[in-house]
Automatic annotation (TrEMBL):
This is NADP-dependent 3-hydroxy acid dehydrogenase YdfG. PANTHER family: NADP-DEPENDENT 3-HYDROXY ACID DEHYDROGENASE YDFG, VERY-LONG-CHAIN 3-OXOOACYL-COA REDUCTASE. It catalyses: 3-hydroxypropanoate + NADP(+) = 3-oxopropanoate + NADPH + H(+); L-allo-threonine + NADP(+) = aminoacetone + CO2 + NADPH. It comes from Silvibacterium dinghuense. Keywords: Oxidoreductase. The lineage of its organism: Bacteria, Pseudomonadati, Acidobacteriota, Terriglobia, Terriglobales.
Length: 270
């Protein structure tokens, strides 16, 4: 069976909740799931974008959609989101914890509120949503959870210190949970992209580097979903990233960390 046939067999007519569905990888995940016949709950802060996406996917694929705006930096948001889907009688069979953002620059000179919010959105909201939707999946003996980590989760990254640390959290959380809940028929996977075409750099305050290769978000989304349904507990969606992560095992972490510091050092730091 082809990967797209497996996706369709798994998700056709089921409800998927995608966080961060207003841009980048979240849009691409929603597009793939809609093509597979999944019904979608789309959430993020920019409601106009969510509504336009929902309408387009409904028309293209004849699926059902719901738009529920939420700011996941608000500690009350995951519960409100959960109550909204429960209140509408939607059984969420696929939870995608995709919303997230980064910051590139010196931690010392960064805004504390921005750093705190990064931890709230990238980590706390992921734990909260997962804890709320997991029991229903276990009860039904089926369900999937995809968590966006990053290749930044494989080593400390100076000038992205908090961001990389949040992504280690996401990756370890996903991989550990996968081992806990597999016995209940629930699959969990950490999707670990490298540089991907999206609005991430703009939000993180980094300039787009012409020499750097950015992977299309559609490719990242497709490989992440395929890995999830194939039962992979983590996916690095490009060969360069897999090679880098493998090779790093043979080099002391201090050396890797120093190399990353040189690579990401802003021009303002002498
Ligand atoms: N692009 C990359 O190179 C890359 C690499 C590795 C991992 N990732 C991970 O992939 C995920 C998606 O990022 P992306 O690259 O697609 O970036 P993006 O284009 O900037 O999209 C980020 C999404 O997260 C949502 N979001 C941000 N803050 C939020 C908040 N407070 N409440 C609710 N939603 C919020 C945004 O929606 P609103 O602004 O409308 O709320 C947007 O939909 C992130 O977890 C990121 O860490 C990205």
């Amino acid at each position: 069976m082809t990967a797209s046939a497996i996706l369709s067999k798994t998700y056709k007519g089921k409800w998927a909740l995608v966080t961060g569905a207003s841009a980048g990888i979240g849009v691409a995940l929603a597009e793939d799931l809609a093509a597979a016949g999944a019904n979608l709950v789309l959430t993020a802060r920019r409601v106009d974008r969510l509504e336009a996406l929902a309408q387009r996917l409904q028309e293209q694929h004849g699926i059902q959609t719901r738009v529920i705006p939420a700011d996941l930096a608000d500690p009350a948001a995951p519960q409100q989101l959960y109550e909204a889907t429960e209140g509408q009688g939607l059984e969420i069979d696929l939870l995608i914890n995709n919303a997230g953002f980064g910051y590139l620059g010196e931690f010392l000179r960064s805004d504390l509120a921005f750093q705190r919010t990064m931890v709230d959105v990238n980590c706390a909201a992921v734990v909260d949503l997962t804890h709320r939707y997991l029991p229903g999946m276990v009860k039904r003996r089926r369900g999937d959870i995809l968590i966006l980590a990053s290749t930044a989760a494989y080593q400390p990254v100076a000038y992205m210190a908090t961001y990389a640390a949040t992504k280690v959290f996401d990756r370890y959380f996903a991989e550990a949970l996968a081992e806990e809940v597999g016995r209940y028929g629930v699959r969990v996977s950490a999707l670990c992209p490298g540089p991907t075409e999206s609005e991430f750099g703009q939000v993180a305050g980094s300039r787009k580097e012409e020499k750097r290769k950015y992977q299309p978000a559609a490719e990242v989304a497709r490989l992440g979903l395929e890995g999830l349904v194939q039962g992979k507990t983590w996916v690095i969606p490009y060969s360069g990233g897999r090679i880098q992560v493998f090779a790093q095992r043979f080099v002391p972490r201090r050396i890797i960390t120093k190399a990353a510091e040189k690579m990401f050092r802003p021009d303002t730091v002498k």
